[in-house]
From TrEMBL:
SUPFAM superfamilies in UniProt: RING/U-box, SMAD/FHA domain
Listed GO MF terms: ubiquitin protein ligase activity; zinc ion binding
Keyword Zinc-finger among record annotations: yes
Sorted UniProt keywords: Metal-binding, Transferase, Ubl conjugation pathway, Zinc, Zinc-finger
The protein's name: Putative E3 ubiquitin-protein ligase dma1
Domain RING-type: start-end pairs: 193-236
Length: 265
């Protein structure tokens, strides 16, 4: 029999909010994650200073966002959004929720919905006058995350073979011997760039996204216009390219050990 605490945890709604990159001048903001309960109200509005993330608020430095623009809340295990009398509007998948300065009725949010706060002023030439467009990732399953971890591990191992330092001659020769045996038995796979579909090969400049999809840097470079925001053209997952990468060697080893554990249903 499950405890009340475990039942409450199972009813929580996990919300991850990332920038929606649909143009070269999209407003970039840090990824935000929330755990919403049935009593939770998440207030959305404008801030004039850098504030630490709060479990009860979502703020943006944009003058087209009202101080109290909208709110997200949970009711009967479903997540809703409503406009709170904003002047420039709240949009759910390009549909405006209410007229200016009017409270809207609640609209349910689904996974991968796009929410827009306000509209660009003067074309959004200045960042402070750009609207906020965000993608709502709702209740991504644990199974998806574990499958992705296994895919990341395989990609890491493949790239490790491609990028063996020249001074590690013994390791390189062993990899070449293993490669020759695999080729002879037709058990050898060559990765492809997800954009041009040509082979990923040694001595090429490569870009590996956090989702582990691999591209030639030459092919991917035009998609880096919104740096540090990056949207994978294949799986559409968002990543912050400025995310901290300070990991010790032992941390990486522990990560690889844990990811090697077989997945059980």
């Amino acid at each position: 029999m499950s405890s009340p605490d475990s039942q409450n945890d199972s009813n929580n709604q996990l919300l991850r909010v990332v920038p929606h990159l649909d143009s070269h001048n999209a407003l970039i903001f840090p990824v935000m994650e929330y755990t919403l309960t049935n009593s939770h109200v998440l207030k959305i509005g404008r801030t004039i200073t850098d504030r630490r993330p709060s479990s009860n608020s979502m703020t943006f430095r944009s003058k087209v966002v009202s101080r109290r623009h909208a709110e997200i809340f949970v009711q009967h295990d479903k997540v809703y959004i409503r406009d709170m009398q904003s002047s420039s509007g709240t949009f759910l998948n390009n549909r405006r929720l209410s007229s200016a300065n009017q409270i809207s009725q609640p609209f349910e949010i689904h996974d991968n919905d796009i929410i827009q706060l306000g509209v660009d002023y003067q074309g959004g030439a200045q960042e402070i006058y750009r609207c906020v467009k965000m993608k709502m990732e709702l209740n991504k399953s644990q199974q998806q995350n574990e499958s992705l971890s296994q895919y990341n591990l395989k990609t890491y191992q493949s790239l490790k073979q491609l990028t063996t330092p020249p001074d590690r001659r013994e390791c390189l020769l062993k990899d070449l011997d293993d490669m020759e045996m695999a080729i002879e038995t037709d058990d050898f796979q060559v990765g492809e760039c997800c954009i041009c579909l040509f082979a990923i090969a040694p001595f090429q400049a490569l870009f590996v996204a956090p989702c582990s999809h691999t591209f030639h840097y030459k092919c991917l470079r035009p998609l880096l216009a919104n740096h540090p925001g990056f949207l994978c053209p294949l799986c559409r997952s968002y990543a912050d390219l400025d995310k901290n990468v300070s990991l010790e060697v032992e941390d990486v080893k522990q990560m690889l050990r844990s990811n090697k554990k077989p997945y059980t249903h």
